[in-house]
Amino acid sequence: MTTPVAVVTGASRGIGAHLADALEKDGYAVERGSRSTAEVTDREAVQAWVADIVERHGRIDLLVNNAGVIDAEIPLVDSDPDEWWRTVETNVRGPYLMTRAVLPHLARGTGRIVNLNSGAAYRNVDAATAYNLSKGALARLTSQLGLGEGRTALVFDLAPGVVRTDMTLAMTMHRGRTEWTSPTEVSDLLLAIAHGDLDAWSGRMVRAGTDTVESLRARAAAGLGETDRTLGLVPWGQDDPLR
């Protein structure tokens, strides 16, 4: 039996390391990305890394775009332009370059891409605006590839909730937090996606700590609307000409 191959970016610590460990325990050959392996914003480095993986394994079954950073939690007017743009590059250019490089080698019919996203994509908050904007852009990339007639792959947004990591512990909004999402809740959803149990959710967001595999299956069985769990324009009503 062929061993499935997973590629996980940002896998040296935090959620990425946990997800990579969970996939290995599930029988995957896991390629762990980090800045020392391949900087995800470096086109040539990404292409070389993916080419090496394909040469050694012959295929890729799962790509997990986990690598990400957050900018300072301050208003846009006070933000540092270089830090702001680095955040967007890591969180958008990174998944774009990885997805572009992996797609031609993704196992046909069974290959999947999971983008680690955030509820910040859906919030209107003038703080950490690069992070919020970048996660919104990532949500659009997910739906563009994973939904509708133009679907090119099975692509999912997986929001991990608030897992206790170095990044979340350093964030002002989580100071004093006592309740955290369990890493296992995140990996349970990832493994369900990887196994094909949640294919109805391609192009959409699922959230650990709120959703379970069972609740998502039930919701899909009841029917999903075209825009359910996607990022887009909300019309003012049936008479809105932009519907």
UniProtKB/TrEMBL annotation:
Stored InterPro entries: NAD(P)-bd_dom_sf, SDR_fam
CDD domains, sorted: SDR_c (cd05233)
Pfam families: adh_short
Stretches that traverse the bilayer: none
One Gene Ontology term of the molecular function aspect: oxidoreductase activity
Keywords tagged on the record: Oxidoreductase
Family membership: Belongs to the short-chain dehydrogenases/reductases (SDR) family.
Matching PANTHER family: BLL5898 PROTEIN, OXIDOREDUCTASE, SHORT-CHAIN DEHYDROGENASE/REDUCTASE FAMILY (AFU_ORTHOLOGUE AFUA_5G02870)
Protein name: 2-deoxy-D-gluconate 3-dehydrogenase
Source species of the chain: Knoellia locipacati
